[in-house]
Amino acid sequence: MSIQRITTGSTWEDKIGYARAVVAGGWVHVSGTTGTDHATGAIPESVTDQCALALEIIGEALSRAGASFADVVRVTYVLPDRSEFEACWPLLSQTFGANPPAAMMIEAGLIDPRHKIEIEVTAYLGG
Question: What Pfam families does its record include (predicted)?
Fold first, then answer.
């Protein structure tokens, strides 16, 4: 079985030593992703802007792996303040559309206190 590692230029990838996504055995495992602009390091202030940016980064990683949000079978959301999660629901519903994955939301601190949401997904490529 071959393993493909996908990186996106996040400073965290090098600092911590991980890949944005790993493709193995028909599965795409996308690491927890925050709404941080990898080119500038900027972090939007609102939870919805961070959610949108995190989904954009995840979407790019999925695409490079040959997958899309329609292939996502599991998603985990981590928020320091669970009361902010509801603001993201319309965006998440729009992103997953007719292909909703199994999901879990956890309230926990994130690596940078400016982060308001982190999203991790697992997709299945079939096979």
Answer: Ribonuc_L-PSP
Locate 124 and state its tokens. Answer: 């299945």
> The domain 3-124: what is its CATH number?
3.30.1330.40
What are the residue ranges of helices labelled H in the chain?
11-12, 47-64, 89-96
* Residue 9: half-sphere exposure toward Cβ, Cα within 13 Å: 8
Q: How many CB atoms lie within 10 A of CB 119?
A: 24
**Phi and psi of 50, rounded to 5°?**
-65, -40
Q: List Cα–Cα distances, 23 to 29, 31, 67, 117, in angstroms.
A: 6, 11, 10, 24
In angstroms, the CA 36 to CA 105 distance is: 20
